[in-house]
């Protein structure tokens, strides 16, 4: 990887001045740098020369007065840059990630912490809902772990839900992980991810295009998503609502010629509608990380392919069992009253209204949330909820009798679809 070039205080000040100039868009700044070279040269030009290249507005912005707090910001940046593991990478630096140069508006400065070589590695993004279901959390960690073990760097946005699970899954694997954040590199958002951000800075990399001290603003995150899309060869979307930042990332990635992958889910789950929409628009439906690796022509970890396949096969067999019910003979009738798999009468019949979810006990609501919209066994639900076995079994029965879930053959449970 190219080594980050040292910057003199004057050079750093010139870069920061242009990066902070009000009204100077990255596209205009790139044009000025292309015409005149380094920022010091841009700032030394007359107004007419700058306007001829990038327009009057850009010329006014570049030559305008600095912000009142500019000196303090420059001092803070110099101190931050001097700390171990921190780096400021300019658009003219050989260490600037080459894939970001494909963008029409690459950030003039990148504030980075950690392993800078990961910014040049083959990478794939794993993104999805902040309010992810337990199944999506498991899928994100599993996909990220396998992708990173195969040598791909997993890129995400440090958000709650899928992003955090993806970072954790990839963190200690060969490919590592990069977090592209929507605040200054000296801040962490959400605050709950401070320990995770510390781990990523130690074992992966944190990257921001925002000046130090920039707080979390809603407008920053779509802009952050364009950097995620540019960093990678493909984007894997695991759960996304119909209006989701993950869909913005997928759209931008598609516009940049990157591959887009989406995990399917239940037609009754609101957080899978975004993924289904992507699939309808041409995204590749994937059910395993190996399919992503195949699409990107990445070899699986040495000796792991067979082991991974052997672990997946029993799961596919188990999941398929509930849907392979033998057909009833013509004229066969179901016994009345209906019985549950435990032999107890079902008091909530198909045609009866089920109890509203809001009226359920707290444990029942928590278990229903843990079940999500995909079939799960008692063992899986026990891991997700940490409920004692007796409480778990009793709560499952309560939800079944209330019509909120169905017990399927093979010990599987699924959220009831009727009325959804």
Automatic annotation (TrEMBL):
InterPro entries of this UniProt entry? DprA, DprA_WH, DrpA_SLOG, WH-like_DNA-bd_sf
Domain Smf/DprA SLOG as annotated: residue spans: 88-296
Where along the chain is composition biased (Basic and acidic residues)? 341-355
| Annotated stretches, region: Disordered | 297-355
- Per UniProt, residues of the DprA winged helix domain are 353-411
Q: Family membership, please give it.
A: Belongs to the DprA/Smf family.
User: Which PANTHER family does the record cross-reference, listed alphabetically?
Assistant: PROTEIN SMF
Q: What is this protein called?
A: DNA protecting protein DprA
